[in-house]
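Predict the assembly for these two chains.
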Amino acid sequence: DAGVIQSPRHEVTEMGQEVTLRCKPISGHDYLFWYRQTMMRGLELLIYFNNNVPIDDSGMPEDRFSAKMPNASFSTLKIQPSEPRDSAVYFCASRSGQGAGTQYFGPGTRLLVL
Amino acid sequence: QKEVEQDPGPLSVPEGAIVSLNCTYSNSAFQYFMWYRQYSRKGPELLMYTYSSGNKEDGRFTAQVDKSSKYISLFIRDSQPSDSATYLCAMETGGFKTIFGAGTRLFVKA
């Protein structure tokens, strides 16, 4: 398996622009997570899905952030409009519902909002 | 107060040293305890996983959980330069929502 795939790997954009991050989870995994990592706040859970349904979005910072999972093999995290404080590394992770603990992370998307 | 507290370091040790990394937590409902390793510009990867209290050993790595003290540890024996990374503790109650510590940056000098 290729692991969790994220695109783009790097994104530089200007304040006010829309940003869309993409994730392909590991085939067969029924949980998908979006995280944000910064030096100041560490690794924060933004939202997670089970069987394509959002379960907990309490970590989404504000209405500018939205996430979708239209099918089992694809998810997006959208920021509109983007702000400089959104600059961070965004990780997608997936796991199977069988057994606890093992999340598999993607390589991350480094976002810089100017 | 954060649910999970972890000293961010950095921690610098000579090659061959024994490394001790620690986290404390406040939520007594946590049952699953993990350690993830994250190399620079990479995603975290699971290193050790423990359910409830006790010890678990895997090669040079030993994970310990003391639920009575709400304290978990990761020991690395015979540390190598390749162990240089950020180590994140993580915990779950069983509901698939994982809470991560801030991560400790470790440098092992050759």
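The mean pLDDT of chain A is 94. The CA atoms of residues 16 and 81 of chain A lie 4 Å apart.
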